[in-house]
Structure formats: C-alpha cells, structure tokens
Design brief:
Blueprint lengths: L3 E4 L3 E6 L5 E7 L4 E2 L24 E4 L27 E4 L3 E8 L2 E10 L2 E10 L5 E3 L2 E6 L6 E3 L5 E9 L2 E2 L3 E4 L21 E8 L3 E8 L2 E8 L5 E8 L9 E8 L6 H6 L4 E3 L4 E11 L5
Antiparallel strand pairs: 1-2, 2-3, 3-4, 5-11, 6-7, 7-8, 8-9, 9-22, 10-21, 11-20, 12-17, 13-14, 13-15, 13-16, 16-19, 17-18, 18-22, 19-20
Length: 297
Amino acid sequence: MSGIVLDNGTLRLRLEPDFGGRVSELTDLTTGRNWLVPGPAVGSPAQDATFGVEQARGWDECFPSAAACEVSAWPMTLRDHGEFWGRQVDMEATDESITTTGRAGPLSFQRTLTLDGDHLSLVYRTSNEGSLAMPYLWSQHLLIAPEEGDRLHLPGIEALDAAFLSHNGHLLAKGPVSFPDPGRDGLPALDRIHPLKTRFAAKFFASLEGQAEARVVGDRGTFTLRWNAEAAGHLGLWLDYGGWPAEAPVSQISLAPTTAPMESLADAVAGGKAVWLQPGETREWSLSISIAAAREH
C-alpha cells in the first residue's frame, strides 16, 4: 500500500497525501481490526467529480460543503464531498503526527493527527485569507467497516432527523425517528448492525450540546469519538446495510461530527446554519478518537 504511516505499536494509521489526506487505514494492532472501510483511493480531481461507491472508503474531510452546490459567496460550484478528496494536499510528518493543509478558494484548511497510545487526537484549523466573509460547513467523513455483533451507542440521543431513508428498494418519508427503535415503516433497530440482505440505507442528523460522544462497541473493541458540540453541534449518522447503491450493495456506517444538520452549504446558508469566517479570521477545533481492544459498555 502507498501513503504515509504512523505506528506507535498500539495503533497504525495510513494517510494518502496525494488523495486529499485521506486516512485509508486505522488499525488496532492488538486485535488486528482496521476500523475503516478498506480499498484503493480511486477518483478524479475534477471539480465536477462524483463521490460514488468506489470513493466511499476510508476517512475524508468534507469542506466547505458535503454536497455539490452553488453559493453566491463562492466563485465556483462547490464539489461533491468537499474540495480535497482526489487532490494533493501539503503534508508535514513526525514520528507521532501528520499535518495536512489544503485550500478551498480563500480558505485554508489544516488537520493535525497525533497518535498517543490507543488515542488519536485531531486539531483542525481554518483561516480566511481573502478579503470577503466566506461561509462553510465541515463534516468528518469517516467510514467504518462494521462487524457482526457491533452496537452503536449515542449517549443522550433519543431522536434523529432522517434526511434520506431507503428500505427494500423503496424511498421512505424523511423526518423524525426515534433512536434506537425507529418505530415506523418496519425499519430495523438503529443501534444494531444488520446483514446486506436488510437492504437498508439512511442518513440521519442529531443536534448536540456540551461534550459529545459516539461509540461503536464490538467483540473486537470499542471505537469512541469525543468532541465539543460548541465547535460542531451536530452528528451525521450514515447507516448502509445493502441499501446503497442498488447495483453494488455495501455494508458501512459513519459517525460524522458536523457543523450543520445538512450536507449542502447552500442549504446551510439558507437555513442560517453555515459558519461564516471573516477576512483574516481563524477558527480552531479539536476531536479525539480512542480505540480500546476490549468491549466497553
């Protein structure tokens, strides 16, 4: 495999600077489990490139939009799943950390990943180097390869807002659902992993406050995300058990801290959910991932 590797004897991380800084591997060396959806980094650097099933692997950062859209403040049509995947970013590495820096118009976007035992700390930093205020949204896009017996733990979350629902080949109505039992349309339990034959795919959002946490708990370990909701006040939840795409069904889930409860920056601006960065302004936020080899309850 290509890429730059960090390995501290507990965790191994592989990053692809020629593909937007994608993290293509995050392996717990105690159990051997790579928590990320594996596969080669495939995709076009074109502005109109589509992020499909061949791109839905590993861990990318969606910025300044997670969906292709047009926003008057931006001089170009914003790219599907952000400006970085499929493109080269600048990189600096030490034995313990990797910093990548990319540009989206007048905005710089920097992410530093640091390994410390069974923890991975992340610091994000974006600056407006232009002369006009610019809106953005950020969404982490970390795709987990689920295993049988895994469970989702979303502390404090009892309801989700469905932005996309597909079950057995049928699109269902958007709107609120309960967590973990959706209680409608014969949908499967949302805290459990289901086989491909379930033919279920959904994108949900939840609003958060204070210290946020989301976990995947399984027989080969526990994956925990922690962050301050003041910086990213929403969780995007993608669940796919053979429901997307219809022609090549896959099994994957994503726990995605995000600044807005939607994927399109245009929708975020219209709904007052975009983050606006003034000329010369810098914003910084952090997030941590811990991977325990044992099942945690």
